[in-house]
Amino acid sequence: RAMSSITVQPPKCLQKTFVAPRRHMFGPGPSNVPPRILAAGAEPIIGHMHPEMLEIMSDIKSGIQYAFQTQNNMTIAVSGTGHTAMECAIFNAVEPGEGVLTAVNGIWGERAAEMALAKHKPVLFFLTHGESSTGVVHPLDGIGDICHKHNCLFLVDCVASMGGAPLHMDKQGIDILYSGSQKVLNAPPGTAPISFSERACQKVFNRKTKPVSFFLDMTWLANYWGCDGKPARIYHHTAPVSAFYSLRESLAILAEQGLENSWRRHKEVAEYFHEGLENMGLKLFVKDKNARLPTVTTIVAPPGYDWKEITSYIMKNHNLEISGGLGPSVGQVLRVGLMGGNSSKASVDMVLEALRDALRYCHKSKV
Ligand code: PMP
């Protein structure tokens, strides 16, 4: 027998057929992808520069403009997750030596913002609209004006809030806004909407230095998405074709349902959920009702219990994902995300039943 050149053998694990478990994805994301969006993603692959693909990208652009409530021409989806869009925003808008101001937590007082902007002269002010780690939705009105008065761009993360809480990019003077595909949009993770205002474009396209990332360089991406007015599209990277099909379908569903209906449903379902939790004797982590993010609810970790036992119990016995805290909220909260198609009273009833069951059967310390 001829000697094989192969030194690493075909892995046995790959001989097994893979079937993904069916789960209720009620954590802070990803959320369940409905059959219609899964089916769109299963369509045959075409070339990333074929005219039909460019049309899909144009549809995606229109869908994002609607979801963001913006007329910005510079509106695209980056190939990557929410973090990719975050890096795209920062890498393109900031040059070496420039300052960035970030609102870390709590509700940002207008006066404090004004003082910090005057003192530190940042070129960019970053705020998360829907803080999925704490379950807080930050008010946005008025902040854009303050930023512009201080010659600062207003950057907002709406990964966890877009489609689930009112947001008007143009009216609220937001200069750069980005989101993700895997939350309210119910598309698979891996594409991220982002939009730049005229003011942001002025800065981004007049840089003295090149952005640190070639992949996220908006000069390239603007051309690739047909936003730079040039007749020819130049190959930049191979778009995740199937992911764009899915994203297009998810934006189509949002457009069909209507943004305001979606905002209203998320609010109503969240309120119904919060009432159910309080009736069970559980406490909400965010005390101020108006500051509660409708998409991701934070529940004070039930005293006497190990939160990990609760989430594991619910996963094992109810096939349902809820999660613990993140960053500063680890150990303090349970987090439940009800986003897009998952935002329904039926889902709430399922979560409440699972929690009731877990509190009955998980170990509770007597102290
Ligand atoms: N920002 C917020 C508010 C988020 O909730 C998340 C995801 N949990 C991200 C950014 C990061 O997105 P991704 O995990 O898709 O990179």
Automatic annotation (TrEMBL):
Domain of life: Eukaryota
UniProt cofactor(s): pyridoxal 5'-phosphate
Any one biological process term the GO annotation gives: glycine biosynthetic process, by transamination of glyoxylate
Enzyme class: transferase
EC number: 2.6.1.44, 2.6.1.51
GO cellular component terms attached to this protein's record: peroxisome
Transmembrane segments: none
Name recorded for this polypeptide: Alanine--glyoxylate aminotransferase
Native source species: Oncorhynchus kisutch
Gene it is expressed from: AGXT
